[in-house]
Give the backbone structure.
Amino acid sequence: MEQILSASTDQQLWMRASGGDTRAFERLYDRYWELLLNEAYKVLKVKEEAEDVVQNLFISLFERMQEVDIQDVKGYLLKANRYAVYNRIRLYVSDKKNLEKLRNSPVSFSQDQLSDWHNYQELEQRMKLVIHKLSDRCKEVFLLSRNHRLSYSEIARQLDISERTVENHIAKALRELRSALEPTYGSYLRLLLICWI
């Protein structure tokens, strides 16, 4: 079995992983961990932060692998990694005392990274507007899932509703986001929905 996985293309591994084969997912993890870590480190300049970003990316992808349709695994992972790094910087900068540290740090951005960062910020703002228009309960469920990383069962217990109701609210929120934003943002939206912390 290991020889089959070793000889498999990224797409073959992803198909197996999204079908529940954890060994195929582990193979993708092994194949791309170092590349993604190096890319994150180029921007963050702190090894522990870069490791944390990449680890969280793989955890998020593992938790949602049956929801995600990936055609170009390497390209997808690199782009998702980039957005996860930007998200980490956004969270860090949201604390004003960290902003001055960041200004004095060795972090630097290429023109492509700045362009992607601008697209990411614009999409995130538009997502917030769409989420704001959701019903109160749907919005609450969605934010507990995405911002607080609660499982469906944890949300159901916390809100005293059924897991099926949680699933319905999440599905409705995702439909609304896709309907409003996918025609303009396409892959940016799919990546942000996965990487959104």
About this structure: The first helix runs from residue 2 to 7. Residues 105-109 have pLDDT under 50 and may be disordered. DSSP finds eleven helices and no strands in the chain.
